[in-house]
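Title: Comparing notes on inverse folding

I've been comparing how different people in this forum approach sequence design from structure. To keep things fair, I'm posting one structure and asking everyone to reply with a full sequence. Here's the target:
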């Protein structure tokens, strides 16, 4: 059980038959995604310029986009990669789980405005 409420419900259901938690069902969220940028010379890359995630659900959208579009790479350009994720709790050291950590954990490439790859740009330069 994950919390006190689940334990209380389990206690009420102790004489009932029910499936254990391991009975998992998958689901897919339906939606559309319009990337912020698509480099002309690398149209399999979708670039998302992100100041912050408003919700965890918003962040999970990018995982779904990648899963449902094999061969496409979603890349982030973060305004502040160390900005905390929505709902992130303080750790013992006072830090919070950041957008960069989320991207790393979920195997997304990410950059800042200062580290944008030159290969995406005309003549290999970022102005």
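Reply #1:
Here's my take.
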């Amino acid at each position: 059980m994950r919390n006190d409420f689940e334990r209380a419900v389990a206690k009420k259901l102790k004489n009932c038959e029910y499936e254990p938690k391991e009975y998992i069902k998958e689901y897919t969220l339906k939606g559309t995604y319009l990337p912020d940028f698509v480099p002309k010379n690398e149209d399999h890359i979708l670039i998302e310029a992100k100041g912050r995630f408003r919700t965890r659900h918003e962040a999970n959208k990018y995982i779904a986009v990648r899963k449902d579009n094999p061969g496409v790479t979603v890349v982030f350009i973060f305004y502040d990669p160390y900005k905390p994720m929505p709902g992130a709790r303080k750790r013992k050291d006072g830090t919070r789980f950041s957008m960069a950590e989320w991207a790393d954990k979920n195997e997304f490439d990410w950059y800042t405005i200062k580290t944008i790859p030159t290969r995406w740009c005309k003549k290999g330069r970022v102005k």
